[in-house]
Amino acid sequence: MNSVPLFDIKAVPKAELHVHVEGTLEPGMLLDFARRNDVAIPYRSMNDILSAYRFSDLQSFLEIYWAGLTVLRTERDFYELTRAYLTRAREDNVVHAEIYVTPADHTERGVPFDAVMDGISAAYADARLQRDITGGVILCVRRHKPVEEAFAAIEAARRWRDGVVALGLGGPEKGYPPGPFDEVFARARALGWKTTAHAGEEGPPDYVTEAIDRLRVDRIDHGVQCEADPALMRRLADEGTPLTVCPLSNVALQIFPDLQHHNLRRLLHAGLCVTVNSDDPAYFGGHVNENFVRAAAALGLTAEEQLTLADNSLKAAFMDETRRQDYRRVIRDIRAPLHTGHLHDD
Ligand SMILES: Nc1ncnc2[nH]cnc12
Ligand SMILES: [Zn+2]
Question: Which residue intervals define the domain Adenosine deaminase in the entry (predicted)?
Answer without folding.
Answer: 13-327
